[in-house]
Amino acid sequence: MPSLNGIEPNAAGIDLGATEIFVAVPQDRDPSPVRSFETFTQDLHRLKQWLQQCHITTVAIESTGVYWIPLFQTLEKAGLEVGLVNAQHVKHVPGRRSDGIDRQWLQYLHSVGLPRASFRPEDRVCVIRSLLRHRDSLRRTCNLCRKPSPR
Q1: Element (H, E) at 150
Q2: What confidence tens digit (pLDDT) does each residue in 41-94 have?
Q3: What does the pLDDT look like over 84-129, one tens digit per residue?
């Protein structure tokens, strides 16, 4: 990785997929600064503990779909500053080398103040949005299952 003095020395980068989470912390925090975790609840807690042991205070997560939500909530509840970053923005930053080092590149960018986190409303709004989406899904399912009434 290039060497600029970071404005956030306690930053981590996370590249999250459906079944595996890749995490990078600064090189001086652990003998193995890049690790992978599975996506089960106990693994999310192990990941959180490892970040805390490495004295990480802020995390940038790159993810598609909704896979990021449980990890985001777990880390946020632990007191970490968590930002979900747009994968397209990260890919367009000059200097990126390859997909194989996404998490290290993301950790580096986050440590120097890039990229910007996507907007996430406060918890109360997220809960209401979740309920409304679930309600919509149930209504659509009911409409598909309804048999036409005989006339």
Answers
A1: none
A2: 999 999 999 999 999 999 999 987 888 999 999 999 999 999 999 776 666 666
A3: 997 766 666 666 555 556 788 889 888 988 877 888 888 899 889 8
If DSSP codes are grouped into helix, strand and coil, which group holds residue 106? helix
The answer to whether the CB of 103 falls within 8 A of the CB of 14 is yes
**What DSSP state is assigned to residue 54?**
T
The pTM score is 0.77
DSSP string of 77-124? HTT-EEEEE-HHHHHTSTT---GGGHHHHHHHHHHTT-SPBPP---HH
